[in-house]
Design brief:
GO terms for molecular function: zinc ion binding. This is C3H1-type domain-containing protein. Pfam families: zf-CCCH, zf-U1. InterPro entries: U1-CZ_Znf_C2H2, Znf_C2H2_sf, Znf_CCCH. By secondary structure, this protein is mainly alpha-helical. Helices cover about 55% and strands about 5% of the residues. The protein is built from 8 helices and 2 strands; from the N terminus they run ββαααααααα. It has helices spanning about 20-25, 30-40, 45-55, 60-65, 80-105, 110-120, 125-135, 155, and strands spanning about 5, 10-15. A two-stranded antiparallel sheet has the order 1-2. α3 (about 45-55) crosses α5 (about 80-105). The longest helix is centred in the middle third of the chain and has 27 residues, at about 80-105. The structure holds zinc ion (2 copies).
Length: about 160
């Protein structure tokens, strides 16, 4: 049996062939493990910023090994990996941003109660107010048109066609 390449990030080993090693280093699973390993040391954003400034370490890219290891002045991340990180960062930032925007635009319950009170003249906090507010007979201005009770006149103007 030949030499085995041990990936310290993934905690697995495989036959040390250049193609197998390159394939592994580009696998999503490996990139995730490597990222998880580093995010416990420094955060992803710093990592991407720092690594983007460096030139890619040709030796590491070719062989998956570099004698300088962590102190190498070149980046041991491939442009592909950095691009993956950048995309993940952008997605993370976008999703937290979306949540914030939605949260900021949501009216508070107090606002809503005040609005109902103003528009219907009833206080939804009291049972009376609630009854008339949710009564199916009352046309409810807060429901979308499709959920409101249609006025009966609509049906008199509808001409019915037989289907089929
Ligand atoms: Zn790995
Ligand atoms: Zn290197």
């Amino acid at each position: 049996m030949g030499r085995r390449y041990i990936c310290e990030y993934c905690d697995r080993s495989f036959v040390d062939e250049l193609s197998a090693r390159q394939k592994h280093l580009r696998s999503i699973q490996h990139i995730r493990k490597k990222q998880a390993y580093y995010s416990s040391i420094r955060d992803l954003k710093t990592l991407v910023e720092e690594e983007s400034k460096k030139e890619t370490c040709g030796r590491f890219q070719r062989t998956g090994e570099c004698t300088f290891g962590e102190i190498c002045v070149h980046s041991h991340y491939s442009p592909f990996e950095l691009e993956t990180f950048r995309r993940q960062l952008a997605e993370k930032e976008k999703s937290t941003c979306d949540v914030k925007t939605i949260a900021n635009n949501l009216p508070s319950v107090e606002d809503w109660l005040a609005k109902v009170k103003k528009q219907t003249g009833t206080d939804p906090k009291t049972t009376d107010g609630l009854d008339s507010f949710y009564s199916p007979e009352a046309s409810n201005p807060f429901l979308p048109v499709s959920l409101q009770k249609p006025p009966l006149e609509i049906f008199s103007s509808v001409s019915l066609t037989d289907w089929g």
